[in-house]
Amino acid sequence: MKISAQIARSFNKAVTNVENIDATLEDGINWNYVDADIHMDLGIQYIDSWSASVSGYTDQFNYLADCFAGRKTVHQVRQDRFQVIPVTNPDLILDPSKPAYMVKVA
What we know:
mainly alpha, about 110 residues, single chain, two-stranded antiparallel sheet, 2 strands, 2 domains
């Protein structure tokens, strides 16, 4: 998964904001407040520009939240650096009866 540097920075600021920390919640973080802080920090235009991409804002937010909350292991995060992309160029496909993929390092 490709994570926007701006979203990652804004996420880090938001999850360390004491106003967003709530020990009564499952992860100890009020994720709605974190999301709101990111929107205020980056602006809706920036968020919307990512919404149309392959790894949209919501996917990035959820991925970062899973990492922060410990729902993803270091091994999983390392594996996620690879992105599998279908090959569409017929000149590169050895067997047209089977799908072909390539791995892109993010």
